[in-house]
Amino acid sequence: MALVGVSGRRAGCYCLRAVRSPLQVPALQLHISKTAMGACQKDFESAVNQVKLLKKDPGNEVKLKLYALYKQATEGACNTPKPGLFDLINKAKWDAWNALGNLPKETARQNYVDLVSGLRSSSDSSSQVKPEADKKRAGYDTLVITSEDCITKIMLNRPAKKNALTTQMYREIMLALEAASKDDSTITVFTGNGDYYSSGNDLTNFTDIPPGGIEEKAKNSAILLRDFVDCFIDFPKPLVAVVNGPAVGISVTILGLFDLVYASDRATFHTPFSHLGQTPEGCSSYTFPKIMGPAKAVEMLIFGKKLTAGEAYAQGLVTEVFPDSTFQKEVWTRLKAYSKLPQNAMHISKQIIRNHEKEKLHAINAEESRILQERWLSDECMNAVMDFFSRKAKL
Ligand SMILES: CCCCC/C=C/C(=O)SCCNC(=O)CCNC(=O)[C@H](O)C(C)(C)COP(=O)(O)OP(=O)(O)OC[C@H]1O[C@@H](n2cnc3c(N)ncnc32)[C@H](O)[C@@H]1OP(=O)(O)O
Question: What are the ACB domain coordinates in residue numbering (predicted)?
């Protein structure tokens, strides 16, 4: 852990994967055809332009309607051959257009204009109420915390560093959990901003050595780790992880203390502790064998096997996997429905489930933290961290 003061390995050159539904393109980007003439031509042109400016993705169903109406308005009734059975996207578009039958072009233009006008007013009104309903909590530098629909969302917010967890971030998360346990939300959600859920402990935490030297650093880190994990053990409300992308290290291990784990199919789950000269934390030495059986837990925790979202689901670590293209929409629809369930019943049920094991979990957390305190002083750990900063190693 006695590392030179390294602040970063190289210039950031990662790339955020822009995920775009294939259905987005035609309705949003087609230029107006010269054939779209008639009484409401101007309104139609303006509506086509307004679609491009919508703040909120209207969803595939609406985009299909827009596509169909646009085609009908500009080309008339569908007369192209039906796409093959497995050409799913083009088939959906063709079906939507074909369903309009012989609807006159002018009516299609008017319907398109009406549909866009409805979308605009709902997106305007939602952006007007948002500052009140979805108020960003002040006082956090590394997190974005919002409350809406009885859900408190804690979003890790260091996307350029893959949401690696700094010491400040651990502390802010503890404060955020404390606040969420007392606010009037019914459930609390963790997620990450950007392409990663979290790359785990920020390895620069190891470079900030206090006057007491590396022993003091290891001791302080072990206390921080224990306090951090204790907050998850004791959290009284249903806790949900919305795993938007890859997750590494402690961001994976603490999932065993969550009540629901929803994952995008882009997410991966990686606990490369041996590679880093470290040992499991977050109570995973207990929760993982319990969740997935000892053999699979060993593959992850000792041999560092990285799981896909599907594998993590098969092993019980993940509750449900969603396609990345619909992940946010599906998950938040589900959570909004759950958040309306009677609050006290949910919280009492959580207590009954957790209380059986609370004491045991605290003891395991204390033991894992104590062992890690020693590990952080080992050559194996120091070499692994130095390799990361000297660009020799990446997971
Ligand atoms: C006190 C409590 C301790 C609790 C104990 C916890 C243990 C753990 O969590 S163990 C797991 C620790 N995590 C890692 O070892 C991950 C290290 N990171 C990587 O291997 C890679 O960065 C990657 C695979 C996560 C992503 O690779 P890539 O897509 O190529 O992106 P970059 O490497 O270019 O990352 C962009 C940027 O972010 C910095 N960064 C990412 N993760 C970390 C991290 N965990 N710690 C420190 N910095 C990280 C990376 O260095 C890049 O920075 P710049 O070079 O300055 O742009």
Answer: 40-125
| 233 and 150 share one domain | yes
The band of 366, judged by pLDDT with boundaries at 50, 70 and 90, is very high
- Shared domain check, 341 and 241: yes
Q: Is the dihedral of CA 155, 157, 159, 162 positive or negative?
A: negative
ipTM exceeds 0.95: yes
How many angstroms separate the CA atoms of 354 and 162, rounded?
31
**Does residue 148 share a domain with residue 117?**
no
Q: How far is the CA of 350 from the centre of ligand 1 (A)?
A: 33
Give 99-124 pLDDT, tens digit per residue.
Answer: 999 999 998 998 888 888 888 776 65
Local structure of residue 155 (DSSP, 8 states): E
Q: Quick one: 381 and 310 in the same domain?
A: yes
Tokens of residue 332, six digits: 């938040």
* Residues 240 and 96 grouped into a single domain: no
Per-residue pLDDT of 56-107, as tens digits, reads 778 777 888 899 999 999 999 999 998 876 677 788 889 899 999 999 999 8
Interval between CA 102 and ligand 1 midpoint (Å): 57
Quote the CA–CA distance of 250 and 284 in Å, as a whole number: 9
pLDDT at residue 41 in the model: 84
Task: Say if residues 158 and 164 touch (Cβ distance below 8 Å).
Answer: yes
Centroid of ligand 1 to alpha carbon of 156 (angstroms): 14
Question: Is the same domain home to 232 and 280?
Answer: yes
Domain total in the chain: 2
**52 and 147 belong to one structural domain:** no
Cα–Cα distance for residue pair 335/328, rounded to 1 Å: 10
How far apart, in whole angstroms, are the C-alpha atoms of residue 339 and residue 317?
22
Q: If you take atom 48 of ligand 1, which residue's CA is the nearest one? A: 202
On the CB side of 260, how many CA atoms lie within 13 Å of its CA?
19
